[in-house]
Amino acid sequence: MIHIIREKASPAQIAEMIEQLENYIKLAVDVRQGILAGGGALHADCEAALLDAGSSQKDVWGADWIPVTQEVTYESLINLRPGRGNFSMDIEDKALRAQIKQITTNLLGER
Question: In the chain, which residues have pLDDT < 50?
Answer without folding.
Answer: none
